[in-house]
C-alpha cells in the first residue's frame, strides 16, 4: 500500500472516530456502557459471521470465474481479491479504487491482465444486476415508510436507484449491443477532447473501446455457459443476503426481538444505496446519518441506536478495511496462465 493510501486510511479512521464522538454528544457514557454489557453476544457473533460469509462467498465467486480458465488458482488468492477490494473501496471516493485493487492482486498471482479484467467485469455486472433487483424489491416494501417518515431521504433513495439502474443498463448495452455502445461512448466522450491533448484523448478512447470489447467477449463466453452464470447469480444473491441481514441481528442483540426482518433488511438495502451517493470515502457521515435516521423508528433508546450504528459501521466498513490491509501482506501463490506464456 502506497504512502498516500496509508495516509487516507489513517484519515478515514480519524474521521470515523470524530463522527462517532459527535453521535455520542447527547448520550450518557454510563448508559452506553450499560447497554454495551447487556448486549447478547451470540447475535453479535451471528452478525460478524454474516460479514465473513459475505467476503467468503465473493472469494468463491472469484475462484469460480478464474479457475474456469486458469488452473491452480488457490482459494487463498481468490479471497485476497474481495478483501483488498474492501480496503480500496473504503479509502477512495465513490469506492472507485475497488476494481483496480482487485486487478492488482490478481496480477500478482500471474493471471493475464485481460483475463483478470474480464473476470472482474463479469463479477461486477452480476453484482450490479443483483443490487438493482434487490433495491427494486426494497423500494416496493419500504419506500412508503421512508417517504412518510423522512421525505428528504426518499429523494436520495430514488436518485441512488436511478444511478445504479443507469450503470446496469450501460453494462447490458456493452454486453449485447457493443457497436451502438461504442458510437454512444464516442459521442459522450468527445467533450473530454476540449480539456486534454489529442494524443492522450485518443489513447483514453482506445482504452475505453478495448474494455467494451473485453466485456462483450466475456459476456459471450459466459453466455455459452448458463450453468456457470446461474451459479454466480445464486452465489451473489446469498452474498448480498448475508450482508443485508447484519442490522437485523444487531438489533436482536440489543433486545428488539419483535422487529420485522423484511422491513429492516429493506431499509438496509436503501442505506447501502444512499451511501454510494456520497463522494467521501466509505460514505462517512452519510452512512451514519442514514442509519440513525432510518432505524430511529425501531430503536427508541438513543444510546442503543448509537451503539447499533457503531457496531454496524465496524462490521460493514472498518473490519473489511482492516482485513484488506492484512491481505495485502499475504504473499500470493503463482499460477501458470497460458495467455502469459503465449505473450
Overall description:
With 343 residues, the protein is mainly alpha-helical. The chain has one domain (3-149, 225-336). The longest helix has 37 residues, at 113-149. The chain is globular and about 60 Å long. The chain has helices spanning 3-23, 29-37, 41-67, 75-91, 98-108, 113-149, 151-176, 178-189, 198-223, 226-244, 246-253, 261-275, 286-295, 302-329, 338-342. It has 15 helices and no strands. Helices cover 79% and strands 0% of the residues. Helix 3 (41-67) runs antiparallel to helix 10. The mean pLDDT is 84. One of its GO terms (molecular function) is phosphatidylglycerol lysyltransferase activity. It is a multi-pass membrane protein. Its EC number is 2.3.2.3.
List the defining traits of the structure above:
mainly alpha, globular, 0% strand, single chain, 15 helices, 343 residues
Question: What's the short story on this structure?
Answer:
This protein has 343 residues and is mainly alpha-helical.
Could you give the topology of this structure?
Blueprint: H1 3-23, H2 29-37, H3 41-67, H4 75-91, H5 98-108, H6 113-149, H7 151-176, H8 178-189, H9 198-223, H10 226-244, H11 246-253, H12 261-275, H13 286-295, H14 302-329, H15 338-342
* Tally of separate helices: 15
The quaternary structure here is single chain
Structural class category? mainly alpha
Using the CA coordinates, give the radius of gyration.
Answer: 21 Å
Characterize the biggest β-sheet: none
Strand content: under 5%
Please give the domain count. 1
Shape: globular
Number of DSSP strands? 0
Strand/helix succession: HHHHHHHHHHHHHHH
Q: Portion of residues in helices?
A: over 70%
Gap between N and C termini: 28 Å
Estimate the mean pLDDT confidence: 84
What are the low-pLDDT stretches, counting only 5+ consecutive residues below 50? none
Amino acid at each position: 500500500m502506497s504512502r498516500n493510501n496509508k495516509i487516507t486510511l489513517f484519515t478515514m479512521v480519524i474521521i470515523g472516530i470524530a463522527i462517532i464522538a459527535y453521535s455520542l454528544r447527547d448520550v450518557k457514557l454510563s448508559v452506553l456502557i450499560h447497554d454495551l454489557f447487556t448486549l447478547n453476544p451470540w447475535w453479535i457473533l451471528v452478525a460478524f459471521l454474516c460479514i465473513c460469509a459475505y467476503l467468503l462467498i465473493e472469494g468463491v465467486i472469484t475462484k469460480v470465474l478464474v479457475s474456469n480458465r486458469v488452473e491452480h488458482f488457490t482459494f487463498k488468492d481468490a479471497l485476497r481479491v474481495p478483501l483488498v477490494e474492501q480496503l480500496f473501496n473504503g479509502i477512495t471516493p465513490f469506492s472507485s479504487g475497488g476494481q483496480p485493487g482487485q486487478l492488482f492482486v490478481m496480477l500478482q498471482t500471474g493471471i493475464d491482465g485481460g483475463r483478470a479484467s474480464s473476470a472482474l467485469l463479469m463479477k461486477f455486472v452480476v453484482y450490479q444486476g443483483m443490487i438493482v433487483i434487490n433495491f427494486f424489491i426494497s423500494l416496493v416494501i419500504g419506500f412508503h415508510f421512508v417517504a412518510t417518515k423522512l421525505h428528504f431521504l426518499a429523494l436520495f433513495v430514488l436518485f441512488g436507484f436511478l444511478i445504479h439502474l443507469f450503470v446496469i443498463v450501460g453494462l447490458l448495452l456493452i454486453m449485447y449491443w457493443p457497436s451502438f455502445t461504442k458510437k454512444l461512448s464516442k459521442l459522450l466522450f468527445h467533450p473530454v477532447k476540449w480539456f486534454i491533448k489529442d494524443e492522450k484523448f485518443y489513447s483514453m478512447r482506445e482504452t475505453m473501446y478495448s474494455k467494451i470489447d473485453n466485456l462483450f467477449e466475456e459476456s459471450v463466453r459466459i453466455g455459452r455457459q448458463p450453468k456457470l452464470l446461474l451459479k454466480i447469480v445464486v452465489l451473489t444473491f446469498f452474498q448480498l443476503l448475508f450482508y443485508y441481514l447484519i442490522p437485523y441481528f444487531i438489533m436482536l442483540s440489543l433486545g428488539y426481538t419483535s422487529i420485522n426482518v423484511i422491513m429492516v433488511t429493506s431499509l438496509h438495502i436503501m442505506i447501502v444505496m444512499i451511501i454510494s451517493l456520497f463522494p467521501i470515502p466509505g460514505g462517512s457521515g452519510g452512512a451514519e446519518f442514514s442509519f440513525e435516521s432510518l432505524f430511529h423508528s425501531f430503536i427508541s433508546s438513543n444510546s442503543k441506536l448509537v451503539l447499533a450504528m457503531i457496531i454496524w459501521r465496524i462490521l460493514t466498513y472498518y473490519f473489511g478495511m482492516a482485513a484488506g490491509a492484512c491481505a495485502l501482506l499475504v504473499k500470493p501463490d503463482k499460477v501458470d496462465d497460458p495467455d502469459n506464456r503465449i505473450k
